[in-house]
Amino acid sequence: MWSRVLFASLLSTAAIADGSFRADSHGPIGVMGEHTHNAGEWMLSYRYMQMEMDGNLDGSDSVSTTEIHQQGYMNSPQTMTMKMHMLGGMYAPTDELTLMLMLPFIAYDMDLNMRMGMMSMGGGMTVDTPFSTHSDGLGDIKLGALFNYQKTDSSDLILNFTVSLPTGSIAEKDNTAMSMGKDVQLPYPMQLGSGTYDIMPGITYTVKQATYSWGAQTKATIRLGENDNDYTLGDRYMATAWYARPFAESLSWSTRVAYEHWDNIDGIDSELNPMMRSMVPTADPNLRAGERLDVAVGINWIMPGEQTHRLALEVIKPVYQHLDGPQMNADYSLVLGWQLSQ
């Protein structure tokens, strides 16, 4: 009996040491392109991502609806929800190269408040009219390659390179409180893509020890040229680091920090009504830049077998934001994912 227990214990320890059947052999589900595969291996994935925004910031200070209207804007964003369904695939033709595909389907919903001044017999008065806008469809498809630059028994140094294709619409329209029943071009945050070819270089480093793992990644999104509507979204820069630890044979928890900086838009959307820029902050290309620091906690659950199923969840909360505003304040995000690999 004791020999069987000892053998099972040694087998379990060996599995943890070499990374086999470990839930933390992949990074948190909110990080993409953080692992590679051996030659001939493949992986299919599905991610559901949701971000909630509530209120507005100017710098790091909260800006009320009344203050936005006092700045001369007739419309004030209140809340915004982004929902994304991401289908992914990975395949390794060699031990050194893993190819990657990401196919996003996105939906945006924004609630706004329109304030108009009216005259009555008793003097001036204002009327608040709430309204909503919506857009949905295919986002920008991404094709990527991961190169194993340096690989040891306990660490991986991966070079990331992704190309983003302009498949997402930049012509999304909807009814607004002032469009007289007609669909009009929506401001920048409601568009589904960049309209440009973008390159996304990066580098990832991961370490796996017997009882824990950690990793770090940095990426950039660099826009190439100007889109058909005469503007270019701002470049983005991201850095993140995480620590993960198994706490059962098939479960692990993780904690992560992430920093992101993004630039203002260059140019002006030629399809957007020029009056919109003074009516709502989201239509001003000079109010789109910012930076944010997030913290996240996650969990991975793996079911080993001939084909490995993995379920994962990560919840993300901003702890610092500084925005060229008024600009919408990120409240929280979550990422729920499923992965199938062989």
CATH names the topology as: Porin
Largest sheet: 11 strands, antiparallel, barrel
Helical content stands at under 10%
Strand content: over 45%
Count the E strands: 17
What count of domains describes the coordinates?
A: 1
Alpha-carbon distance between the termini?
Answer: 34 Å
**Average pLDDT for all residues:** 90
| Radius of gyration, whole Å | 23 Å
**Uncertain runs:** 1-19, 118-123
Lateral arrangement of strands in the main beta sheet: 1-3-4-6-7-10-11-13-14-16-17
CATH class value: Mainly Beta
Shape field? elongated
Instruction: Give me the CATH superfamily.
Output: monomeric porin ompg
Structural class by secondary-structure content: mainly beta
Total number of helical segments? 3
- SSE order, one letter for each helix or strand: HEEHEEEEEEEEEEEEEHEE
Q: Which architecture does the CATH hierarchy give at level 2?
A: Beta Barrel
Topology:
Elements (H helix, E strand, L loop, with lengths): L1 H17 L23 E18 L1 E3 L1 H6 L4 E17 L5 E24 L2 E16 L3 E10 L3 E10 L8 E3 L7 E3 L11 E12 L4 E12 L6 E2 L3 E13 L2 E12 L3 E2 L8 H4 L10 E14 L4 E34 L1
Antiparallel strand pairs: 1-2, 1-3, 1-17, 3-4, 4-5, 4-6, 6-7, 7-10, 8-9, 10-11, 11-13, 12-15, 13-14, 14-16, 16-17
